[in-house]
Amino acid sequence: MRPVNENIKYAYLKRWSIVCSFMHWIRSYGEWLYLCRRHVLMAGHNDREKGKYALIKDSDDFQQGLYDKPMPCFGCGIGWFSFLIGFAFPVMWYYATFLYFGNYYRKDPRERAGLAASAIAAMGCSVILFIVAMILLF
C-alpha cells in the first residue's frame, strides 16, 4: 500500500496525462482544420484570378421579407396607435386588448409590444373606473 502523498501524486499524474492526451488531440485537429481551410481558400483564390464568377441570385427575383413591409397606422402599428389615441378615446385601448388576446400579433410580431401596452392601459383604466364607481355609489 502506498502512502497518502504517493496516492495523491499518482492520481494527479494520471489526470494530467489524460489532459495532455486530450490537448494533443485538439492540437492535431486544429492543424488539420487549418490545412483544410487553407486548401479551400487557395482553391477559391485560383478561380477568382481566372475571372470565374458564380451568379448567386438574380436581382429581378427580389422577395420582400416580413419586416420590409411598412407598419399600418402611420408606421407605428395598430397597437401603439391605439395606445396613443386611447388617451383621448379609451375605447381604443379595449379594442387593442381584444386584438392582443386574439393573437393578432402572430401576423406581425412587431405589433406585440404596442398591443400589450394598450392592454395594460385598458386594465388601468378599468381599475380607475371601478374605484370611481365605488366612490360615487357609496
Number of helices: 4
Sheet-strand content, in percent, reads under 5%
- Radius of gyration equals 33 Å
Total number of distinct structural domains: 2
So what's the overall shape? Answer: flat
Number of beta strands: 0
Summarize model confidence as the mean pLDDT. 75
One letter per element, helices H and strands E, the order comes to HHHH
Task: Specify the biggest β-sheet.
Answer: none
| Secondary structure: helix percent | 55-70%
Which stretches are low in confidence, meaning pLDDT under 50 for 5 or more residues running?
A: none
What's the end-to-end separation, in Å? 90 Å
Which structural class should the secondary elements be placed in?
A: mainly alpha
Task: Describe the structure concisely.
This protein is an all-alpha fold. It has helices at 4-50, 77-85, 91-101, 112-137.
